[in-house]
Design brief:
heterodimer, A: alpha+beta, OB fold (Dihydrolipoamide Acetyltransferase, E2P), 6-stranded antiparallel beta sheet, 33% strand, B: mainly alpha, 15 helices, globular, ABC_transporter_permease (chain B), sugar transport (chain B), MetI-like_sf (chain B), MetI-like (chain B)
Amino acid sequence: MAEIKLEHIHKRYENAEDFAVTDFNLDVKDNEFIVFVGPSGCGKSTTLRMIAGLEEITEGDLYIDADVVNDVAPKDRDIAMVFQNYALYPHMTVFDNMAFGLKLRKMPKDEIKERVNHAAEMLGLTDLLDRKPAALSGGQRQRVALGRAVVRSPKVFLMDEPLSNLDAKLRVHMRTEIAKLHEELKTTMIYVTHDQTEAMTLADRIVIMDAGVIQQVGTPFDVYNSPNNAFVASFIGSPAMNLHEVTYSGGRITGKGIDLAVSAPTKKALDQKGYDGQTVIFGIRPEDIHSEQIALDASPETVMETEITVAELTGAESILYIDVGGTEMVAVVDARDYHEPGQTLEVAFNMNKAHFFDVETEEVISR
Amino acid sequence: MKNKVNSLGKFWNKPNHAAYLFMLPSILILLIFIVLPLVGTFALSFTDVNLFFTNTKFVGLENFLRFFQDERAINALINTLQFTLLETPAQIILGITTAFLLKRNTRFNRLTRSVYYMPVVISFTVAGIIWAMILDPNIGAVPYFLFKLGLPIPQFFRDPNMAMPLVAALTVWKNFGVSLTISLTAIQSIPDSLYEAAEIDGATKAQEFFHITIPQIIPTIGFLAITNLIGSMQVFDQIYITTSGGPQYATESAVMYIYSRGFSSPYELGYASALSAVLFVIIAIITTITTIITFRQEKKMS
């Protein structure tokens, strides 16, 4: 139960010239599930570790509730952290691993027992309390790491890529477990990941970072549908959004093999902002490129002839790599129609869903 | 032709046979310099052989019975145990603690570690001479400053109560760099995240040391204990240089006494061999006990 406020947080490591994190501002609401996402080295873990108190804050103020905690030791911040490699104490049993923090806080033995047993029940660890970490599977270790945080009932839960050491199936399972845990505990959680799917599925709000700078903060819906810039557009969503430089002129965009009319609202925005005759970045999500007859019929003015270079069947959908007059694009289409490389394919672009970004700043022009 | 180049022939090509061939040099060295002298010592201990091998005859257990009557031998053994009890724990504790404090690879820590390791590379003879001179009541630097400060000047190596602790301290000073280096590698292999988790759990630096570091390096502590115990039980050089076993045999160690029996008049090599055999058995017992303790602790931890 806590609000966290990061005000102009900067981090520069010793002997480093550049800031690892630059001017990070964020208000985390009580009980909110925040996910920091970005490519490796973007500063997301560094920011989390600053909140934990494991890294010093170079500049700026960090508030937990009303207090500035920049110089408060980790143990006095009332936080718990789950590490990527779990960081379980190898020589202690599961019980002792979870009880360690409570013992250090001189909690009465009965209460420790009660709390650990409660957490163990919640996480399905009751039968494993006497085991040592070496005798546990990856998923079980992950649960113990969560349990160690749960027993403390901290104000804030911090998780640093907690699922990246698990195999794909277990990862999806534990993702749901973490979502449930958040429901049950009603604690503020900050979660770091490089996996945009984890971010999309878990977060109340996502913080997308690149090169130490926040690119966008928003709900999963917002960041997916209204990306602030080309980086967010390409990072969120899988397969990634198609982004191509095109020339805009008189309501049409033209590029290598591309010649499309933009939607009326887009035309208005582009004209108003003086992009007529300019180069812009045209972005379209793979699922907004359609191949069904009904879509082709609906917007014949956006239909283009393409050639399939690679077809990947994922089950319900096919991911098609298509050659649009020399420009490589990716489309996600219904797998009911059979596709194979070399085929020609007529596709329709849903220009209402197209995104346009400035070529210099990569900031969004029109959504 | 090609086959002959690539193989040693049918017999040696069998995996086991070839392995023994590769082990042969080590086995030979072990046999000639360890096993043979060991067996030889045990054999000689049942004779009254002297250094010049004249009039040798078999005397059975006489040498061993003599040991139990020999007050100087018992005294030497007690001195050795005393030295070991002073030296080994001190060296291990100092080594591990220093390694823990210097575990981060900062420039200062690297420099400090090198400084602590420096005495290791000089010989005990040199270290002994240096400290004997620094602490010499007549010409030493320390007594000089004590005198200047108007403080009483102790006799250091000439004081029967001080001599053995001083020799032990000198040994710790000279050798704890080894314990430091060995425990450092063990300590540095502990993942940082364990300490970070403990920090968030609320552990102080001391609690991290006792709850994380120590349990993680039990095998290393065992190794240090065993090698150190063996070395301490065979202490010789530094005592020979600083006190020559004095004053009044207060610092005479087992190996020193053995040496004086065998290599000074009347050159009783047989008796010296018997004493060596006794020392060997004692070291073997101590080592075995230490190994068992370490093994049990290790099992408890993993």
